[in-house]
Sequence to fold (171 residues):
Amino acid sequence: CIHEIIGQSEAFPNMRLLMACRQFDLEKDNRFRELSPEHGPAKEVNAKPFSVEEVKQVLEKLGYTPATFSEKQIELLRLPLHLSLFAHVADKNRGKPVTFTSAVDLFNAYWEEKVQAVGTRLGANSNQWIDVLDRLCDRMTDRQTLFVPENAVLDDFAQTVRAMESENVLV
Fold:
């Protein structure tokens, strides 16, 4: 999949491709490692935590009062991933007390928002969220891969899969 995306982007000389992964993945996953500066076309850029002031500016832009956040919450939001998760669910939670105390809380809020969004897209139809994820996890475990080709694996969940794709839960 990564090589296909790289190949497609090379067809457009003005296009730039930005990929992101954890340092752990870059070190342990052969597919990422072969793209690293020592072996391939990628340039490594380490993301650094945001400053406390930058986090407070983002919170204000999201409509929050930074003073209502604890030091621990601000510290958690200094990581770009955590701030992104918070920003994603901020709209739905504006006006409610800010209660997260860990990264797990942020991920849970993100997933809960996604479950609700997929349910809204499906309307009265059955939400097969768990069935889709179970099928994908089982297939990835069986094949020892990080992706599953869509063909026939999820055909019986087509409507739920499309809703999950629309919410960027599945790609």
User: Anything to note?
Assistant: The chain has a mean pLDDT of 86.
